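Cross-check.
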Amino acid sequence: MGIRLMVDEYKKLFINSNKPIFLVKIDGSIIEFNKEAQLLLRYSTQQILNQKFYNFFSEQYVHQFERMAKNKITTQHLYLISKDNNLIPVELNSKKIKFNGKEILQIYVDGTNLGNKMLKEINKAMTDMNKQQYELEETMASIYHDFKTPLISINNFCRLLSVEYHDNLDKNGQDYIKRIEKNIARILNLTNDIIEFSKLGKFQYLFKKVSSFEIIDSSIISCLEELKEKKIEIIYRIEYYDSILKKYTKIKVSFEDRIKNEKLLIKNFPMIYCDKDRIIRVFIQLINNGIRYMGNQPQPKIEIGFQQQKSDRNLMTFFVKDNGMGIAKPHFKFFFTPFYRVKNIQIQKQGIKGTGLGLATAKRIVEGHGGYIDVISKEGKGSNFFINIPL
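Predicted model, tokenized:
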């Protein structure tokens, strides 16, 4: 692979070393690795670069990265997980070095003295665990089916009552039927989301190069009915850094004008290496989030776009920005936690409901691409979600 980021004294070391070597930022992001490192993990360059190094640790050892980040020199014995889910016993020797004026970690990977017998036992345990996970998913699917059948039947009877016995029901009766239908829909959505969320960790992503404009456009069209109903203005926005002018240049195009500006949008929205359907799902979730929590904004607006990073050209940043209710800072650290839902007076007044799994699902998909998702928000001013994906 090409040595893009290293200074001259490390080139020979990387090229000739028969040991896997990683260069890692203090926050855990992998900024470079050699061929041996890629052979060890068996992932593609795009799936490793900018990924958090500790994401390749066996779960019980993730906390050990903090020790590596805090100390100048460390030796850690742990297990890495390869693409085929094999546990690899390793010794990690880390050392802090200066790189472009900043401290980073230089990590060498050595084999440990763990025997093949132990490794086979560990892999057998992993196989058993995967089998149990499969059995759990099958059980959940069966429970979902057992829930779904009678609930759909109840829902159909409610509709029959509402239509065929409309004249025999007073206002309260009609209201009760509507409440039953809403709660049935909520239970079905919740159980379906739980099953989908549980499967994401095992999902095999189908990576290919696609136009990010095509992804964003498809996402908007999927939400178009709700956007029109709430009269929300949609804006495509592109921000790229002009190295000559030394400032960011912005391009804004409304959804209504996208056809006549299609060439401009296709040209300036980058190609992205991803699982197209899954990333579309992320954008749909964030757009729906903006619709749901728009509140009583007199001029509702959602901007969707791409922002070129000045400092890190190996990272692509997309965003979904709304001018809705926004969220208070204390909620930030829980925002992508499964089943967590922000509660405030305005949300309660408007009766906004959800399963609490949408943003957690979006986070897991983005992390499955080696990226991360973040949010900046202010209560009463709106939210801006950032989707960061490596090139």
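Residues 1-6, 112-118 have pLDDT under 50 and may be disordered. The longest strand covers residues 87-99. Passed to J.P. for a second look.
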